[in-house]
Amino acid sequence: MMVGCFVSLYVISPKLTGLTVVVLPCLVGAGALIGSFLRRLSRLAQEQVAKATGVADEALGNVRTVKAFAMEERELRLYAHEVDKSCEINENLGAGIAIFQGLSNIALNCIVLGTIFAGGTLISNNELSPGDLMSFLVASQTVQRSLASISILFGQMVRGLSSGARVFEYLGLEPTIPLSGGGRIPYHSLTGRVDFMNISFSYPTRPGHQVLKRFNLTLPPCKTVAIVGESGGGKSTVASLLERFYDPTSGVIMLDGLDIRTLDLCWLRGQVIGFINQEPVLFGSSIMENIRFGKPEATDAEVINAAKQANAHRFITGFPDGYNTVVGERGVTLSGGQKQRVAIARALIKNPSILVLDEATSALDAESERVVQEALDRATRGRTVLIIAHRLSTIQGADLICVMSNGRIVEAGTHLELVSKGGLYSDLIRRQRAEGQR
User: ABC transporter domain: from which residue to which, for each copy (predicted)?
Assistant: First the structure.
């Protein structure tokens, strides 16, 4: 409509059209300047809404902790503060868009008034007839209405662009570790030997702090290797590197003599490595679906067999709905020991060659720990096992125990060998026994 009307305007009066064309770029430039400010303000508004939502989500997700410390009022004040800031920024954004639209309409009406004034001059000079001036005004008002509609759409576009920018910012991110591509080792020839060779590593968020320093370790096939040490020594980092949650800063991790960076990551995580951590996360679906998460194509019989290996079958069948029992968000309806056994079954159903246990029993009470430990003892048979342990009583039967300190292995041997040495491992045992007696 605008293009067609501009052609009509030029045919009716090139002089009046020239005046309009001179003024319009100035309006467009001013609009672009105000628009860039509004886009920044809209982005701030989106970020503040996300921040307020995050505060609410965190409080509701940890509602028991909030209630346990009687912090309801504090969380309400914190949320109200973030919502008030969001309200203020959105009000400023709304006012800015309103001012932009108001100024646009004033400027467009001024163009119409200027056109009437200039047209009157042309009529008095016999350069334009009154009928042509009326035709020019009708066409210019069509242009005005089109521009007014564009200014309203511009306000919506500003909000959409700022919202979309946050989405596309994440969509455009490329993973540093590709999820697919690379080779696979035939299952019948996979032995499960893992070698950590001269590994150095720093977390991306703390590049100046080296967690592992020229770390070397070999996990022999079908043997159990335990890593112990004080908190912050880098034990869990070793498990994270084996799972390729991160790649080492330097050095290489080998699986059966092949660099794991050359292997298909989906195959490595989906079929080769079973990972059980201290705080297992279950999904808000049935027990059957949670166990099957480890192997989506598994049959019901495979799920039940995995549950039996994990010492979970008895308590599952004790529920009225059995394997169809819905565990609730994050498995809230199950006890700690029950959740851990479901997580063990989830890891075992894919029959992994390598099993990683990251402090799998440290958060359990004595009875739950005993039942879970029985399941773990059964699960580790015939597999390469890496145990990250806090309670030393759970790893005394390991084939090799490594003691870590400051990112390096300082002692290695069996339980009896390390106790007889009287080194750091012996000190850790004495300290834990003293704490237990208290």
Answer: 194-431
Please give the Cα distance from 406 to 232 (Å, whole number). Answer: 8
The rounded distance, in Å, linking the Cα atoms of 398 and 225 is 6
- Report the mean per-residue pLDDT for the chain: 80
| pLDDT tens digit sequence for 340-354 | 888 888 888 888 888
In terms of domains, do 83 and 192 share one?
A: no
Residue 153 covered by a domain: yes
154 and 265 both lie in a single domain: no
- Give me the residue label for tokens 């991160």: 246
Q: pLDDT of 354-409, one tens digit each?
A: 888 887 665 556 666 677 677 777 777 778 888 887 777 677 778 888 888 877 88
Nearest to 333 by CA among 260, 282, 396: 282
Other CB atoms within 10 A of residue 112 CB: 15
- CATH at residue 268: 3.40.50.300
Do 164 and 193 lie in one domain? The reply is no
Contact between 401 and 414 under an 8 Å Cβ cutoff? The reply is yes
Tens of pLDDT, residue by residue over 175-219, are 777 777 777 878 777 888 888 888 888 888 887 788 888 888 888
Q: Are residues 310 and 407 in the same domain?
A: yes
Q: Considering just the CA atoms, what is the radius of gyration of the chain in Å?
A: 34
Q: Which of 68, 88, 66 is CA-nearest to residue 77? A: 66
What are the two backbone dihedrals, phi and then psi, of residue 421, each rounded to the nearest 5 degrees?
-70, -30
